[in-house]
Amino acid sequence: MSGDSCGADGFVSSPDVIAVSAVDNLGQKTMYSEPCSAIRVSVPVGGSPEIPKLTWRDISHLLPWSSRIPNPNDKGWLVNGAGLFHHPYIGFGTIDCYRLVKLAKQWNFVGPLCVLTYKKEVYSVPDNWANLQGKKKTNNVQHLFQCDDQCSAGIIHQYKSEYAQSW
């Protein structure tokens, strides 16, 4: 959008938000950059990366494996199924750029995204029926290194205030 300003975005202008912009490999603003006084810093994007074959999926894996725990004494750290520490407020920790690049140089690529789709199912819910539960069981699916779960559902309900869901 021509003439737009990130200063018009209430979220970006909030005092407790740190606005970050992008510059290309020549240090020039990107075509999608928006000007505003809220921008604190810019990060380099595009250009020639150190490892050009890395995809967003690889980065998604690399970040948790290379992050560091900022405060190991915090009681919120739990070990997930992959053996990594995760905190509900801090995630996998803080980004350690040195460890990230070092790990990326010896990284085994995760490969293309695999999508499993289930057929569309329609449930008719009788009035005043409190607990409709739909369950899916997956058989004969080989173990994957990481499963990126996404679920979408289209729901039509006469009274929005009476509807609740949990995954």
TrEMBL record:
GO annotation terms (biological process): protein processing
Keywords assigned: Hydrolase, Protease, Serine protease
SUPFAM superfamilies linked to this entry: Subtilisin-like
Recorded GO CC terms: Golgi membrane; trans-Golgi network
Name of the protein: Uncharacterized protein
Keyword Transmembrane helix part of the UniProt annotation: no
Keyword Hydrolase appears in the UniProt entry: yes
Source species, domain of life: Eukaryota
MF GO annotations: serine-type endopeptidase activity
Entries under Gene3D superfamilies matching the protein: Peptidase S8/S53 domain
InterPro entries in the cross-refs: Peptidase_S8/S53_dom_sf (IPR036852)
